[in-house]
Amino acid sequence: MTALKVLRTMPDVSPDHFLRMKEVRQRTGLSTSTIYRKIQEGTFPPGHSLGAKARRWLGSEVQSWIDAQLAAEPEVEPWKPPLPPARRIGERKPPPLVPNEKGAEAAAKVAGVVGLAIPEGEAPSDREIALRFPDWPEMMRQRTAAAYLDLSESAFIREVYRGILPNPALLGGRQSWSRQEIDAALARLLKRDGRVR
Q1: Cα–Cα distance for residue pair 47/35, rounded to 1 Å
Q2: What is the pLDDT of residues 47-81, one digit of tens each?
Q3: 3-72: CATH, from 3.30.70, 2.60.40, 1.10.1660, 1.20.1740
Q4: Averaged pLDDT of the chain
Q5: What does the domain layout of the chain look like in residue ranges?
Q6: Any alpha helices (H) in the chain, and if so which ranges?
Q7: Per-residue CA distances from 166 to 160, 170, 172, 188 (Å)
């Protein structure tokens, strides 16, 4: 609860009643150091000295300061949660987040067919390829998609920003890339360069 909301709920004090520091703090919602700082700045009533260590404030002075603060406060709208992200027209529903036992094997087969050309004799084993891919081959996270194209992650993201590779889709709150969209982007790139396989 903010200090000004506390002020609205406090009962009025008779004008001739002196308030102690504790009562002033409760009514204003300010700390002792803040009250003294505001007195030095001239933005809070200075109060009255009743002795060497006794300072009191008139209830009317404190109440007039509170009323001035309430008048100066703009009306605050209540917090509203943000709207959910809009789905794009034709956007596919993301695949379930349940891993597929055969997904890594399928991704390895796809990598062997679609991946970049590897010279004979240097081809990694199917098991090594399968370990580089997730359990579902259709959607890949950044590291996997970069490995799929044999790029570093920074080079992969740079190509996404350039528009050569597709933008990610949010899957479970994380960025994921569709294997089919990546393959289509590669096909367009190779066709544009005249290097059709």
Answers
A1: 11
A2: 888 888 888 888 888 888 888 887 777 776 666 76
A3: 1.10.1660
A4: 72
A5: 3-72, 103-193
A6: 3-9, 21-28, 32-41, 59-72, 103-114, 126-131, 142-148, 153-162, 179-193
A7: 6, 13, 18, 12
